[in-house]
Fold these 4 entries.
Entry 1:
Amino acid sequence: MSESKAPNLPKPVRTLFLIVLVISPLYWLIMTEHGRLSYDQLMLSLFGKDTISLKIENLGADITEELFIEQFPDVEFVCEERKTEFGDRLCQASVGAFNELPSQHMSLFFSNNSLQALKVVYQLAYHELAVEKMEIQVKAEGQPLDYSSEMIEWRTPAGVVLLNRIVPKRHEDAAILWIAK
């Protein structure tokens, strides 16, 4: 009976192989956009940040505060009476991801218990990904209204989605905004 034996590689080759085996995943995590996104998503879930997944095209003024919050029982929304340009009530929540896009927080604006606007502030490093995701998610419903300005606009059945075309200078300007018609 013959005994199977692994080839005995020279020590420099084995060392090089081990270095490549260790460095490759680190390179992927640090140097590629997909790697950074995967790392951020992993860290956000490990630290218990909430994730919200919803179809923006399903938003409408027929959604009430109770109905929206009921859909996301794990997310801690803080609501208060506050006069804004979109209504008289504001609900906010810290979120880790919105539709798999690393995010910071979400704001919901209600007027007479009717959803008037939604704003999601995402991580500035993922601006290009935000544009891509909105292209895929919202474009199916309607073509962009305007590609020439600094904002990209898409129509949805019950509103308009706005997103900066260029990378914003400030973190708080890195936002996806849905406004009811």
Entry 2:
Amino acid sequence: MQSFSTVFFSDNSTLSLPAFNKSRLAIAVFDISPMEPELMFNVNENYDYIYSDKNRLKFYELFYNSIIDSAVTHNADVWIKPKRSSRLLRHDYLDLLDKLSGEKNVNVIPSEISAFRLIDQSDGAIVQPFTSPGYYIESSTPITFYDPLGLIQSSTTQAYGQHICFNSTDLNIWFEKLPNKP
């Protein structure tokens, strides 16, 4: 396992995290909020992976829907923290987040809240490959990258030794290993 220092996150400390339901698991979820393709300029080497289908939203739909399905099965609430807030974000992505926030066990929190703060108060964190919250090695909270498309190879070095769920079966096994709530 390669050792490295965690990246730093900004935090708007005037924003409070909503109270978690103490009788349910709280799962933090992090993505890379997509901007329109013409604005990317090769800043994300996973860009082709994310948009490997004609439906450019397929990745996000699979990512979130399979996490929510597993969360329901395991009596968990999902706390989605988008990576950024910007008028340059894709509108279909924002519509998806709005739709998901209507689900009973799903909460979308402001992007200005620190990933550190959310992870530290959660029972587990699921992270889009390979965005920075997945490398928060100082936390005792279980963290996994999640590849809903099953395209990432198990031999990848981009995870730097961090856990990866390669499909929804792996994700359910990861959920089962989390501490149970009373």
Entry 3:
Amino acid sequence: MLTLLFSLDTYSMNALIQYCQNYYLGCVKPYIDSQSWMDMKMNIMIACLQLSGKEYPPEEQMYEAVKRWIDHQYNLIVLKYTNTSKDDTDAEEDGTNSEEDNTNAEKDNTNSDKGNTTDPEPEVNDALFNELDEFKAKLKAVMELIRFPIMPAEYIASNVLNDEYIMSISGVKENVRIVYEQ
């Protein structure tokens, strides 16, 4: 749907864009609870949050949906860097490690006792942390579209201020402060 909106915008089809936006807004409430929402790319998420209308869910509900999306995307990044492969896991569970695998494991254990192992973790950790930092920096564009000023101050105090990760995203503290200054 939102890909269609981008295409229509390219060709300046404003009436059709408005129709699609109205349709989307009518469907957004069930959509934010779906797996499609969780798998959404960041540019599409930004486009979703830029829309508004009378059918738009309450801002607290949108914040919760965005927070779930952030958690999901964060976990996907972390999963990319875990060293568990299905084949290794299956072999260990079945007890079907080949003799060569067992020999290699013994060599690894011998080398680790001597402290002669080459540990790839520092490079993986650096790449993981770099990607997580990039993701967090890009989240500023998403979080700027959350309308904190229209959320009840009690909600912000109990849900937003207590979330260290959300509060550490650039610009969130400033946007939340607006609520308390009013």
Entry 4:
Amino acid sequence: MIVAAFGVGLSVIGLIVYLLLLLNAYVTPAAVLLVLAPLFYVFWQIRLGKFSELIPEERNLLAGLPAKSLDRAAALICFSFIAVGVVDCLSSPMTHWDAIASWDKWATEWALRTNMYGRLLGYYPQLLPMTTSVLYKITGTAQETLSLTNYALHAFQPVIGFVLVIAVLRLAVVMNVAAWPS
């Protein structure tokens, strides 16, 4: 449930940013509302006493994973790799080619715009740059060479990797198959 909500949440934010750009309405107050709306929803659910419905009963995300040694080893390797990535991401800004030349560059470009007219997308997916542009839009640091926003977005990258690995493992449980077939 949480993994699905994470993916759906990122997709919805990206779609709303896209629609705001189409409507020439991607401005800072809209970005702030985009971040505050889910927080307001959770607060409202807590106030109504329905917050427990938002949290699944199952606490162990990997419950039911087949005890195959390959699955366990692959999961351990993936989580170890992500742990190393966390250390790198928490201690440095984006430094590698794709992050600088495309993802972060596109995110800052989207943050500086209020519409999408006259923008060549180059057939590259823009969900992540549009979603991360919200933070640049709110902080107003899109034109800074190396802002704290860059560090924050870099620290967010391992979260995406972690959620993807959890999604693969949970899908294996639901389908009752090996996560990494041998």
